[in-house]
Amino acid sequence: MNPKTSVYVARPWLAQLSEAQRAPVRPAATVLHAFRAAVARAPGRTALAYFDGRLSYRETDALSDSVAGHLAARGVGRGDRVALMLQNTPHFVLALLGAWKAGATVVPLNPMYKSAEVAHVLADSGASVLICSDRAWEGYLRETAAASPVRFALTACEKDLQTRDDPRVLGFERLPVPSDTDDLVAVARADHPAPQYGRDLTGADVALISYTSGTSGTPKGAMNLHRGIMYNAERQRTGHPVAEGSGYFALAPLFHITGMVCELAACVANAGTLVLAYRFEAGVVLDAFAEHRPAYTVGPSTAFMALAAHPGATPGHFASFQVISSGGAPVPPALVEKFRAGFGPYLRNGYGLTECTAPCASVPPDKEAPVDPASGTLSVGVPGPETVVRILDENGEEVPFGEQGEITVRGPQVVPGYWRMPQATAESFPDGELRTGDIGFMDRDGWLYVVDRKKDMINASGFKVWPREVEDVLHTHPAVREAAVVGVPDAYRGETVKAYVSLCPGAAAEPAELSAYCERRLAAYKYPREVEILPDLPKTTSGKILRRELRYPA
Q: How many domains, the chain?
């Protein structure tokens, strides 16, 4: 980046930040350092709340020490990879801390992965340990692990560490501990001696190898450093402040970088209580809000759509929140207003990727995100003080403010590259700057707008159509709960626009009505000629709508 020619060198977004938000942060070197500091200053405070179960910081420290001692006794050392495939439960946190205390790098796995997806990650990462649910092990992971570098496994029954057994999410039967694995909770309670602190990791060590979703090819493992996690966690803590010791509700899955950084790591940095509820189920989540009264949460827009649509949702469920952030999936402007009108809180938008360790832009707590008058796109916020976001054209040259191009990110949270993929690293991180593959623009005041993914652009008779713009219009229709727009083959136009929608409970709408609604609000080449109504749209576990499954249905 040449400061003499860069239109972004002035960093106009700094004017949107307060003096406190612009101040340098001094994060702990690793999440473990932050965790040990929390144990020292609040040992009796609840660290993990799981239905009616509670673990204090002191207890969590002792249990994860024992997990670390067990791993170390079985030969796990510094830099070894430990694969972790669990839902949002205390088991996940005990395993994560234990692996780090043993000096290992953690490889988080989506529990929704099928055998072939797990096999790829285990082989590519070279993971020597797998920690998973007993049901997944008995179901298919035993055979998958046998054909991988995994030397041994620990399993967990997620009904442990609570007694409520909520049938909405914990209605499964308890299994005997598999004979060929060790039980994670039994290991944690066995009081194994903790490894010596000589295994302590530094900020420069790889904390996570986080595999991308693989929407554009084989999944790649982003190497999230400890210092990158703690930088963003500390920026989250100081940029969206809540009182020390507050409750952080884990709405995003912890295996996803958003949950890992903005919920778990930020909570630990603030010596807070991490509230867990296994997996997302709207009624369970609302009950947890009422019981635990958390101050902070972050999740995808689809989760907030589901919460708002739940017949039992009331403003009281959200009354304790001081900050509610949305990330991981686009936020339609209409949702922000509907949510505020119905429940009170303002949904604070944000933007980030696995490759920049979650957020690289967010809406400051004293401001509201503007909406671009031309496109109707809601801004995702402004970069932080040490982050530089640029917009580049197809030749890699900066475009003026207001013009669209590829979003790039440079800053302390950007990963050094992909695990064992030097060519992909060179292509995606030229000179250390992340090429995101997202199309967007920045206005003169430093507000960033994300238009869409490069690969999702629809070419209708030579005209560019960005799905986000059509989806945002559909979200303004009172009957629409969720919307996804894709391009489908068309003999005349090459591609044409098709929309998939799900409706709000009790609402009714016809496809022709929704198509006409868009036609009145969009240019002729943009409105969807086809609309299909589904009960629900396919999503990842982190809440992103899977356009590729709609574009290429089985």
A: 2
